[in-house]
Amino acid sequence: MEAFLILTLLIALLVLRVPVAFALGGLGIALLWWKGLPLIGVPQRLHGTLDSFELLAVPMFLLMSNILLRGGVGRDLFAAVQSWVGHWPGGLGAATIISCALFSAISGSSVATAATIGTVAIPEMTNRGYNRSFVLGMLAAGGTLGILIPPSIPLIVYGVITEESIPTLFLAGIGPGLFLAFVFMIFSMGYAKFAGGYTPAPKASWTERRKASLMALPTVLLATAIIGSIYTGIATPSESAGVGFVLALVLTFAMKRMDLDKVREATYAAMRTTVMIFLIVAGAKIFSYAITLYLIPQSISQLLTSSISDSGIFMLAVGGVLLVIGFFLEALAMLLIMVPVLFPSLEAMGISPIWFGIFFVILIETALITPPVGLNLFVIQAVGRAKLEEVAKGALPFAIIMLFTAVLLWFWKDLALFIPYAL
Description:
This protein is an all-alpha fold. It has helices at about 1-15, 20-35, 40-50, 55-70, 75-85, 90-105, 110-125, 130-145, 155-160, 165-195, 205-230, 235-255, 260-295, 295-305, 310-325, 330-350, 355-370, 375-385, 390-410, 415-420. Helices cover about 80% and strands about 0% of the residues. The chain has one domain (about 50-260, about 295-420).
């Protein structure tokens, strides 16, 4: 009964448009006060949450992605990929998805990926006659690769919450991320081929390919340096993000695409997003601390394991709950509210926490492109100056592909676990 009342209060606060961070933190403090529990634990939890070396990667990756966004790196990536595959049937769709995957390997942010590639790809594809709703939906979905293909900010936060290895989570995200990008690409090319109505791009000459590839090469090398330094153990994710930010500055200034005004804009944008993320994390930590003292996660875990003995049915139930919650909560809030509740049940069900993190992020991706609060829908709506319904309609097939991937991940767990544990 307590769990139901607390959940109802939380939903009521969110429906009343109380910011997620204050809804979580305020309710957590109220729960502690109601039970007469010492509130001294609140500042201690806040300090313990924000005093985290792993979380330093978040502002650094955000700074880097904002610098690259304002440095026009997305144009270079898209032009290079387009020169190689743009003449294929539906090749611009393939070029868009590949560009999203490449930028995801640098930014770690779905919003940055969608905004960067969308700015370039939307006018290019619509001018060639591609269905506008399809283009908008594809960009919204392609942007979600930014939180699955490493480095991924949600995977960093998941690792901090669960105390799982962040490099291992990054490695586990590679297989599903590349698989999802491949399926997106095949679907986009098939849609363009059978729906028709577009003008194929002319085949680029070898000179044009070489020139475009050389322009994009520094960015690809930057992504390789970031990911390679993490996987080889040379640097932690936080250290790698800091080095990546410095290299992004050097790269954009060397290309004469950056000035102090753009640096200031990028810094402010990264600061706003960082403050939002950290406030939500801090509020969620207080809420998690309160419900733990109320023994709610343990009670839910006990209820689930006693009433559901099959791990497949358990994951089906979890997936259904996450999909429903995803209609109302933004991605990070889903992660921070649900993981502390569900995590204690994983061991009893024999479910790998690393695998569960990837499964969870795929469902978060789906939430990013489903109304009414799908963040990527709003980003593409703004970039493409479109109606929300138009973007959501185009994104629907990609949301179905994501759900198919989540189901496939259950039956083919090595899609996520082979790279971190077998290679």
